[in-house]
Design goal:
The protein is an all-alpha fold. The protein contains 7 helices and no strands. Pfam families: Reticulon (PF02453).
Length: 188
């Protein structure tokens, strides 16, 4: 299962997944390959292998070889589309709930998260951000499983520090902001 891969229960599979992700990142970032270039090269290689197979098999056997067809089921693409659409709609719905809700703290945290994401995104390319997330998803669960006591202590200290800073912000700035619904008057 995915949890077994992320928690390194089977070290061969987990290391293989991480190695493939690293190889893909190296191709895209360090070697400056583009996705379309790699797909084109893989398709050319596949066509050359099939051409060679069918040509040489026909020469050796005297009859043309029957190369097996590669077909992906249509349900696969329909299921992927439905799953992606459901996740995007869920994400957009949660964003709308936060923006239309009355919880200023949650709203500000989400806005700050997007600003931090945009700031970090200006440092790295999208593929690097995805790779960093992938590596974190494959290393942090194992790290936490082994050192959860120490990690919890550090996180509680950080949350306490953030909480005290928020209290100062709330006391100095947020508490002075007007509360309640803002109603606009109709101009006459």
């Amino acid at each position: 299962t995915a949890a077994d891969v992320l928690l390194w229960r089977n070290k061969k599979i987990s290391s293989s997944v991480l190695a493939v992700a690293t190889a893909a990142w190296v191709f895209f970032e360090w070697l400056d390959y583009h996705f379309l270039t790699i797909v084109s090269f893989v398709l050319v290689l596949g066509m050359v292998v099939q051409f060679g197979w069918s040509s040489f098999a026909g020469m050796l056997n005297g009859s043309p070889s029957n190369v097996p067809r590669l077909e992906l089921p249509e349900e696969l693409f329909a299921n992927i589309g439905v799953a992606v659409g459901a996740q995007v709609n869920k994400f957009l719905g949660s964003l709308q709930d936060v923006s239309c809700g009355r919880d200023l703290k949650q709203f500000l945290m989400v806005v700050a998260g997007f600003i931090v994401t945009a700031f970090i995104g200006s440092w790295f390319s999208l593929i690097t951000v995805i790779y960093i997330g992938f590596v974190c998803a494959h290393t942090l669960p194992v790290f936490y499983e082994r050192y959860h006591d120490q990690v919890d202590e550090v996180l509680y200290n950080m949350l306490g520090l953030i909480g005290s800073q928020y209290q100062k912000l709330d006391k100095g700035v947020l508490s002075k902001m007007p509360k309640g619904n803002l109603k606009f008057r109709k101009s006459q």
